[in-house]
Each structure stands twice: as structure tokens, then as C-alpha cells.
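2024-03-11 09:14:02 INFO receiving multi-entity request
2024-03-11 09:14:02 INFO entity count = two
2024-03-11 09:14:03 INFO echoing inputs for audit
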Amino acid sequence: MPPKSSSGKDKDITDEDEVLQAVILADSFNKRFKPLTVGKPRCLLPICNATLLDWTFESLALAGVQEIFVICRSYADQVKSAIRDSKWSKPSSGLKIVPIVTAKETFSPGDAMRDIYTHGIITSDFVLVTGDLVSNVRIDEVVRAHKERRRANPNALMTMVVKEGGAAHRTRSRGESGVFVLDPNTSECLHYEPVIGYPPTPLIKIPREILDEHPEVEIRNDLIDCSIDVCSVEVPSLFQDNFDYADIRRDFVYGVLTSDLLMKNIYCYVAKDGYAARVADTRSYDSVSKDILSRWTFPLVPDDNHPGGHAYEHLRGNKYIAKDNSVVLSRTCKVGNNTLIGSHTTIEANATVHASVIGQRCTIGPGAVLRNAYIFDDTHIGAGCVVEGSIVGARVRLGDRCSVPRGCLIADGVVIGEGAKLRKFERVSRKREALKAEQPEDADEEDEEEDSDLEEVEAHQDGAEEILGQGSNALIWPQGAPDDEEEELDERESYSNQRLMRIGDTASDLELSDEGSTTDEDDDASDTESSYSFRSRASSMTSASGGPSLSLNLSNLSDPSAHGASAIHTLSSAAAETEFRSEVAQSLERAFAEGHSVENAAVELKTLRMASNVPLRRVREAVVGAIVDRVPLVPGDPAAQRAEIAAFVRRWGPLIDQIGGVDPVETVEVLQYHCAQAGPRQGLFAQVLAALYQQDLVEEDDIRAWHLSAAARGEGLKPGSALAEGVRKCWAVGAKMIEQFDAESEEEESEEENEEESEDEQPAKPKTAAPAAGKPAARQASGSEEDSSEEESEEEGSEESAPAKQPSAAAATRGESAATSKTPRSSGDDDSEEESGTD
Amino acid sequence: MDFDESSTTKIVTREFLAVILAGFGNELLPLTSNHGDDPCPKALLPIANKPMVEYPLAWLEQSGITDVLLICPASHRSAMSNYIQSDISSNYPSLRIDLQTCEESQDMAPGTCTVLRQFSSRIQSDFVLLPCDFVPPPSLSLTQLLNKFRTESTYDGAIATACFYEAGKPDKGTVTEDWGMIPTNLPIVFDERSGTLLHIDSPDDVDNNSNEFELRMSLLSQYPRTKLSASFRDSHVYVCRRSVLDALNAKPHFDSIKEEFIPWLCKPQYQRTRREKYGSILSPVTNNLSQALALKHSTLHLPTPQKQRLRRSAAGSEADDEHLRSVVPSPVEEDDEESVEPSLRVGLVAHRASSGFASRANNLHAYLELNRFFLGQTTWVLPSDPKDRTLIDQKAQISSDSMIGRSTRVEERASIKRSVIGKHCVIGKMAKVVGCVLLDHCVVADGAKLDGCILGTYTKVGAKAELSRCVTQPGYEVGEGETARNEKLETSDWTARDTSESQDSDESEDASEDSSE
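2024-03-11 09:21:47 INFO inference complete, emitting structure
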């Protein structure tokens, strides 16, 4: 929770005139565009001749955002100067853009959010986008919907903007996507499951409990995640509280939705019309470019509202040519559909340009062929070159008759010799010397990481000369999967999955159950004729059988890293539980010794539980255990023992229900198991249970429910073990108690009758002398309990029944100590044992 | 019943065979336990004074299906055949009912799969599998289901059509827990637009993972927008291809159709390996060949992506791939490869609660609810038969939302509200019956009070006894002045022997009554 009064928040929500803030995460936190991003941040890469950052600003301005914070990390100076020089920083733009440089140690969006929190710049609900957004969605409408929702439900934390597309839409990433589970009426997001393309995610897991409250939900695998989130003020603080959240979707959304402590809601805004997409990888660079050229992004199109401020003329067939008459097209060149040509560009004779984007001041040599190519500014393409499905950076010189086939990425300033034949998916950048010579001011500590990258690349340059041709200044980046793949912690950045996000790569040799619609590798083995049990094992091992067929045996890793958050939970939970146990023991020790109030002790336990994230049951076990263990033993004096227990439970019993959830059935079960293990204190079970009953901590129904449960009967325990034996005994005690309840209810119906009569009502149960001595007394006691629970009067129940109970318990223990004197076992125990023999 | 309609459809050759499974009805115990030595078949338990099997039979008749294979336990044979010969042949003359029995005992009933496998040789055409206890809503005709099956099986090779009905969770207060648990709905995943059943969350799935649903990605990529719902219940009405039976025979370890076989049947439609394995069994003849030719030339129909991918991966490495792409595939080759694959879909008709009440009488709660539902639809008037009319005393109070069977005597100042009273019952003086279902031959003595009870046949309630929310076994006797609440009253062994003596005299009466019916 942010340190904000609720009244202040209300004001924020209702105040319509407030400034709409947006936060742009300008860093991508991955390396998908390498080597294009050597010496340049990704958000300054041009798409359709305007930088991604400009497209993002334009999209936000369209949505009525007034104040924008740009979070940048690498090449922050470049980003800053780009913002300074852009049209947005002019006073007339109506936008206030504040760049914020975060620490070098910011490695994930989560880190960036924590940084935002520490900066304290967010004052109201805000829009969170990435720095590579192209959108014409009316975000202001989403914000309005979000605020309305928040007024009704203060727990509405976030609204994610998603776009209806279809599972195989071209702007939907094949490599990483997500399945949303939505309530069809409120479009509340009930569950989010991340999906990666390779190794294919075989199964989607949806928690069963969401059906309890939402009997009918929609599972959507056709939504394009636009990474536009309208967040409430407390979102950054949640990141601060959960320092392991890294990704906004996989960790934050998943974490919030699966948390049983937070109780926050996340909603989706399913955009029916409008366009929104991220340029998250080279493949989406391609598809978003095409979308812009085919005017899906209207009104953000090259001939109108071009974010770079260029002016283009729109010709038939979606050809865009710079308006200032500076473009030189030779008479014999061919310009195909879906093409954008920047100003001062020359296209020489017989050159063919098709479905490509060409930057400013480029020269396309005679006879060159460009197909699906993206050429940045100031690049020279030699005569007779063929460039296909590739991205060529700025100031590149391609010699004559070069061949650049599908999927190549050529970084800024590269020179490639005459007649060079690049291989497919070749990645090329300048050598280090060349880099440093040109931009000495940039070669400071900024690029240490990059330097080491380049160093590695330099180490493997066998045969580069042949490929790159004479006079090249370039390095070839290694193809294929790196050898040190195991270093890659995040599977979605693994080589094979990245192939799905690569420009021009059909990835047809990868087995994709995701894409292939009917593939199901790991079912092969599991659907044998044998039986269901085998199937369950196979599927729970998650594609162990699918592994061999994959070219890379990554499948073993698939489960843990696919659910990063949950993996962390399971790993840490074992350690956390042991730590938790000792912490709780100490905490309770203190509480008992120093006589804390129950409330304070409960608060302490709750905090501990949240800190170590253990299930509620552990807390219950600890508390019940502590109570049983700390009851002062009074050997040889049953009456005093009773009094001690009653007093102790009266003092500390309420703590059991204050630890965060009331589940009396579980309490009894926990008590049973604890007593079963407790050795000499085993006999306390009956008395503690009676005391709990008396304090109204457990009701008759709860004891019955416990008694019927499988755990109570000790099912699943090893028969004959000491624990099983103890559990069985305790169960028998419970059985006894229930018998008394039964007798009680019968008695009640036929008025208050004497013991003799009530015994007559149960002719089936022959009684021996010893239990008969204990039983009437016990029954009398439970009779008085019955009264108290029968709501005659609350105070009476709590005050009078306690003393009333004592003599009976005394009688009980007396009777029992006469029979078996060594260990303090309860009378109920004896009775039921004998009865179970006779039954 | 509309006789004209059925007589016109009779000319058509047999398209579907209806298979009705009538079991012991263990969920309806003690109503279905033996009365002395006579069985009380579940199929003949009346709902609103009509044997429950008549509801599916009427539904079948309306849809024009004439051939019915009725399978019941061997011990029920005489009672069932008696009923068929006397009642059905007169009420539904168009139905030809083939009564078959399977050997089973009440304790060790074989699974529905086993029963169906046993009779698979008798089923030679596409078939409709029905339970004996489904009461279809008037707004949903079987023809609707059949038509969906007919369209989809010829158009894209669907193999079955199932019918689910929406059933909300009952309110806490109205349910008597002592009557046993209400079965929880199996959550299903379906595609609403195309009406396709994709996944049933079977009990085995719950065993495998009790916290989460596990759904195949292949399902979600084929049907990217699906619904997951826990508000539907299986009506156990399935329209199936004959070939489905072959698949059933191929999976000998399946026991329950509803909980094992149908969930399994949903899977080949999106799991490739299963499709490869069972596709030939489930769809041996491409009876959609004629459509295939048309579809191939249709611009709207795309070949399945799987096909495309297979061809691509066959091409091998990328270099070859490149080469292949430039070569236009010859049309001849395409003819061989591009036969349209049957979808093996399982269609779904999801019946919403808003469009009419439907239920299966497969537990005591539903049984009572169904009876009450029909009470709400009828208004009681004095019987037209003068003989019956005389049996009802002038001073008896009978509310209009009640139903009283033939030859039932209601005595002076008895009060009946919101109840179904069977045939040949006796309601004594000053007796009060509220919200009850009394099966045939019940005797309620003077001054007894019944509230929310279901009384099995031949139950006798002593004078001034009070029962609230109880169910009795046939032939049970409630003593004078006894009270019971929320109980299932069953004749234990010694009382059964007692009654069987007194029953001997009754039995002769029975026989005479039966023959008179």
C-alpha cells in the first residue's frame, strides 16, 4: 500500500481534470535486436523512418497523455538527447517528457518499477507502456473505464489492454504469448498463463478454484498483448514489496492473480477496434512495418501524423514517397507495392524495390533487388545486390553484387566487400576498433558488457573474410545455438525460441505444438493402451517423452523456467518452512512468557506467515502445538490438570482463530496429529478438545466433520507406526465424544431426563462398569456445554460451563486413573476402545 | 401424442437406433431397493405419476425414431416387459422396442461401457444413446440434436453430438444433506461458436491434478476462444456414429461412458497422435468424399495447417525448402495428398437454463425437484372418472398444484399441498401431506404429517406419525406416532422378513391390480 490516505485516493479517482501520466519503459532488457543495437538503444531504431520512441510518443499523445516519464538504462544519453531534439520537447507539443535514468543494475521491467517507486514520481493512476509501441487505441477510454471500475472496486489494480487477433495473427508473437482466462461479463482477468513457442508449452494449467466464483469463464488464446497497462498508484509499491517480480506479465500478473493474500483484481480491456502492437523482436518489426504501410494504424500513417515529422505522398498500392521532390527514381527502376522511400534517396536504373522501407539519403545501385528489406538512413546498396527479408542499418556500404538473403541483420556503419555472399540469418557488425574510432566519447564504462560480447564474437572469425568480401570492416556473429546455452536462465531468450521471433525465419523444422494445431508430442507415449495411471505419470513429467524428438534437449528445463515465479516458490518453500517453524516457536514462546495480548501475537504470526509464504495450516499446527506443549502438567491431580487446561485454553485458544482463517475442522485434525506425536501428552487430546469446544472454538458439527474425514482415521499412514497408533487412539476419543453428542441430542428432544433413561435408549451398547462410572459425569458435562452452545446466553455459556465441566472431568480422570494409572490417558479413550471391541 | 406425425415418418428407412440404458438406480436408493423380493426398476419410478422412462421415449417418438433397444438388468425383465406390452404399445404405437437384459446384480453393476460393448453387435447403424432418467425440456427437441449431427457428420466428419444442460447450484437451505451428496458438475471446455465439445474434466483428471485444470495447448491453438464452464451437466444423450462403438471396443478398460469414454472421445479432434491412432477406427470410410471435392475447390476452405506443415517438414532442411517453394506443386500430387481430413469433432448442444428446465433424475434431490417442476405446470381438478371422484372426500383440502393418481382415496379433512400422490394410495383423515412425492400403494394413516418426503411404493405411515424430509424404502412401515427427520428409512433385514409375511396377502392383490392395468 502506498503511504496515502484513503481520502486522498478517492479524490484522485474522482478528479477528472488531473494530469494523465504515462511511464515508458524505454529499455528492452533483452538482446533480440543485436547487433543492430550495438551503440544505440533499441527505442531509437527507426521503423518506417521514425524512431520507435517517436511512435510511442505519438501513440500516447493520441490517447491524451500529458506527462510522460521515460525510463532509460542503456545509452541513456542518446535517449535524452533524442528527446531533447524531438518535436515533443517544444512547448507547443502539450507533452511534458521527463527522462529518468535508472541504475545499470536494472535488469528487468520489475527493477524499473522499483526504481519508479523510489523516485516517487507517480501521483495517480498511470499508463505503463514499453518504448516500442505502435498504437492507435484510445487509451483514454481505457483509463476512464479503469477509473470507473476502481470507484466501484478499490481492489482493481490494473487494466491490461489486449487486442482480439487470433492464435496465428502476424503481430502475435509465436515465441512468447499468453493465455488469458477472463470472466466474459466483467472481463476480469482470472488467470494468466505464459506460453512460449519452443520448446512448445504442452499444457495450460488453470486453478480449479476460479470456477467457484465464476461458473463460466472464457479461455482466450487469441489475444494480442499490447503491453499497455493502466495501473493504479499502488502497482510500483507492489513491485517494491515483492522484490522477485521481474516481468510484468509472468511475475506480476501471475503473482497477483495466484496470491491468496493480496486479494487484488486485474482486468482486461479487449480492444475490438484500433491497432496496437509492440516491436518486441525482428519478426514483429517486419509485421508492424507492414501494418503501418497497409494503414492499419490510421491515423498514424506515413502520409499523415508521421512521428518523425516527414512528409510522404501516398500513391496507389500503398507506396509512400517523400514529398519534397528530392527522391530520384530512375526511369527503369521498379517500385512495387507497400514501399516507403525516404527523402534524398536515389534508386538507379533497373533496380527493383518491393515491400521494403528505404531511409533517407540512400542510394540503391543499378540492378539491385530489394524485397521485404528494411534499409536505414545513409546506406549505399551496390549495383546488382540482392537484399531479401533483412534489416540493414544506417551508413552501411554494400559492395556490388552482394547477396543478403533472408533474416540478415547488418549493423550501422558496416562495409561489405564486393561480391560477398552472406549466409541466411547472418548477423554482422563493425569491428571494435572501427567502433571506437568513430565514437570515442561513447566508449566509456557504458559498454563494458557489450565489449565482452564483441570480444567473444571476435574470437570466432574463421572464414569471415570469405563471406564478407574484400575490404570489409565487419565481424560475423556466431550462428546457431551458442554453446553455453545453459547460462541462459530465461528460456524464452533461448536460441530456438528466438528463431520464432526472427525476421524471415519460418522455423519450419521446429516441432511446434503451439502452431501446428494438432501436434501433441508427449501424448505419443502416454496414450498407450495400458492404463490411466501411466498417462498421468507421463503428463506430469511434462514432455519427458517429447524431449528426444527436439533438436535441443531443453525440455527438462521447461517446467521450472516456464513458471519462473512458481518455481521460486517451491524451491524456497522448503527452506522457508523450516525457518518459519523456528521463528514461530520463538514468537509464541515470547508471547506466552511475556503475556502478550492475543491480538498482538496474531499480528506477529500473520507477518511471519507472509514473510515466509507458508500455508495457513503450518501456522495452525504451530499454534495448536504450542498450546498443547505449554499446558502446565499436573501429574497425579486430574482436577487441577483440568483447571490448568481450561484456563490455558481460555487465555490462548482464541489465537487459533485469529491467525488468518477459521477452520475448526482442521484445528481438530491438527490437534489430533500433534497429540498423536506428543508422547506423554497424548492423553491431553480429549481434555484440550473439550476445552476448545467449551470456548466455542470448535462446534459439535466440526468435530463430526473431522471425525468423518479420512485424515482423522489415519488413512495413508503406515499401519502399526507410533503415529498411526496415536492418531487412531485420538480418533477413538473423538468417536466417544460424538456418541455423547448423540446421546445429548436425544436427551434434549425428550426433555431433560436422567442418565438411566438415556442409557436405556441405547440398548445396543453394553457397558462395563468402569466406563459407566466415567460416562455419566462426562455426559453431564457435555450437557452443560450443549446448553451453552444452544445459545441460551453467551456469557452464561462461557462462565458457568467451565466450572461445571471441571468436576466431570475430574470424575473422568479419576475413573480412568483407577483403571490404568501409568500414563495420563483420558477416560474417553478407554471407553471407546472397549466399545469398539464390542461393536 | 401426435400420432399422425409419427405415421408419416415411418416410411423412412432406419437411420438411427435408439439405445436406452436402464440401470438399478443406486443413486435413488432406497426408492429402488427391492420390495420384498420384487425389484423396483428405476426406469419405472414415476415422475409426476408417469414412469420416468416414458419421457425419453416420448422424446424419441417425436423425433421420428422408431427402433429402440432398451437394456435393463435381468432381474427387471418381467416388470419391464409387462410395462412395455401394456403401456407403451398403446401410448407410443410407433415405437418398436427391443428389450434386452444384461446379467448384473445390484451390488456389482457393470459399467455402462461394458453394457454397450455387450450389445454392440445389435447396433448396426448410427445410434442415439439415452439414459432412462433424462427429462428433456420441451424447448429442445431431439430432432435438433439429430440435425446437428447429420449436418456435421457429413460436412466435416464429426463423430458424435452430445447434449448438456445448464444446472445451477441448488440453494443451501433447500437441500437435505442426509440424502446424499449432490453430484458436482464436471467442468467442460467447449467452443460456443461452432458448438464443439473439447474437453470434459473427468474424475481422472481431478485425480491427476486436483488444484488445476490441465488443457492442451493444441486445443487452444485450434480453438483460441473457448469457454470453461462448471454450470453444465451431461444429459447422457449422445448421438454417435456406428464407428464410435469400434473405438469403444478398442478401449476395453473403460468402464463409464460419461466419465471415461466421452472425455476420451473429445481428444482425437485436436491431438494429432491420437488422431493418427484412432482416426481410421473412428472414421473408416470417408463418407464426406463428395464434400471433399467441393471443399477443395472452395476458396474459403483452407487445408489444415497440419497438412501444410507435414509437407514442409518432409522437405527437410531449409535449403531444400527454399528450392521446393519455387517449384509449384503439381496439381496431380495435390489430388493425392489433399483429401480433406475428417475433423472427428464432438458436437455439443448446450441447453441454457433460461430456455427451459431439464434434468436427470439421477439423485433424490433431482427426483424431487423434477416432480415439483411438473406440479408447477399442472392444475389439479377432481378426476373425471366418477369412480375415482367418489374416493376423494368433499372435505379434503387439495391445493391446485397437486397431482393425484387413479384409485386413490383421500379421506375427510386430509390436506394435500404441492404433492404428487401415486395410484391406489390412501390418505387418512386429518393427514397433512406437504411437498411430498408418494409412489403407488402408499397408505398414510389418520393424522399423520408428511413434509418434503418421498415415500416408496407400499409404504405405510402409522397414525399421527410425523416425517420430515425422509425417503422410505418400498414397503417400509412407519410406526404409530413415530417421528423422523432428514432420514433414509430402510427396512433392515429383520423388518423385511416381518413385512414379507404380511405381504403375501398383498401380493395377490398386486397381481390382480397389475392385470387390471
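2024-03-11 09:21:48 INFO post-check: Chain B touches chain A through 46 residues (CB under 8 Å).
2024-03-11 09:21:48 INFO post-check: The domain at 380-494 of chain B is CATH 2.160.10.10 (UDP N-Acetylglucosamine Acyltransferase; domain 1).
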